[in-house]
Amino acid sequence: xxxxxxxxxxxxxxxxxxxxxxxxxxxxxxxxxxxxxxxxxxxxxxxxxxxxxxxxxxxxxxxxxxxxxxxxxxxxxxxxxxxxxxxxxxxxxxxxxxxxxxxxxxxxxxxxxxxxxxxxxxxxxxxxxxxxxxxxxxxxxxxxxxxxxxxxxxxxxxxxxxxxxxxxxxxxxxxxxxxxxxxxxxxxxxxxxxxxxxxxxxxxxxxxxxxxxxxxxxxxxxxxxxxxxxxxxxxxxxxxxxxxxxxxxxxxxxxxxxxxxxxxxxxxxxxxxxxxxxxxxxxxxxxxxxxxxxxxxxxxxx
Length: 302
What we know:
Largest sheet: 9 strands, mixed
Order of helices and strands: HEHEEEHHHEHEHEHEHHEHH
Distance between the termini: 55 Å
Strand content: 15-25%
Shape: elongated
Number of strands: 9
Structural class: alpha/beta
C-alpha cells in the first residue's frame, strides 16, 4: 500500500513539474482571426512543442509572452510586426432592404464609394457638388475598435476613420452586421470573413454585396458571391474599389518560444489562411517576413 501511494505521489509530482516547465504563449487577436488562430494552436500542439497557447484579452498585452494582432494597409507601417496574410474589405447592405433597392442597378466606382462613405473635403476640386440620392439617404456604419478594418479601408481611400459619415460602432466588426439588421437604409464595410459563411463559402443569407465597377470578368465573379473565387481574384488583381489590408503579429522578438511559433505560422500555418477567409501574402513578401525573423533572432543571440 505504501509503495502504491509513493508511486502515485511520484506521478503527481512529475506531472506538475512537466506542466510548470511548459512554455506559455498568449494570443490577443480580434474575432475575424480567432478561428484561424485556434486552428494554429491545435496544429502546433501536434508538432511536439511543449507549449500551451492561451487566448487573452487586450488587457494582457503587457505580458512578455503575448503575441498581438495588428492590421495595416501598408506592410511597412509597423516595422516590428511580422505579417502572415491579407484581408479584403467590401461594402455590404442587408438583403432585400431599402438600401439594396436604392443601389439597385448601380455599379459603384472608387469615386462614388468615397462620396457615399466619407465626408467630402470642402476644398476638393469636385465638379459635381450635388449629392446623389444614395449619398443623401444611405446611413453609414463603420467600426470604431482599435483593430477595426474600417481604419485600413479609410486609408485605402486616402481618408482617416474620423472621415466616415454616419455612426461608429464600438467593439468587434461583426457588430456592424447587427447594425444593418436594425436599419433598412444601412450600409457598412466589413472583412470578407465576416460577410461570408466559412462553411458554405457563400455570402451570409441576410447580406448583399454592393455592386462595384470592376470590369466584366471581375463583376461576374463577384456576382456569383463565392468566397474562394473572390479570394483567388483578389490575390491576383488590384482594384481601386477594394481595400486589401495586411494582418500581422507583434511580439517580443527576443523570446525564442514566440519566434519559433511565428516561424511555424509562416511556414506551416500559412496553408490555412484561405480556409478562414484570408488571402495569402505574395511569396516575395512571405520570404521577406521569414528573413526578418531570422535577422531578429540573430540579433537577439548577440
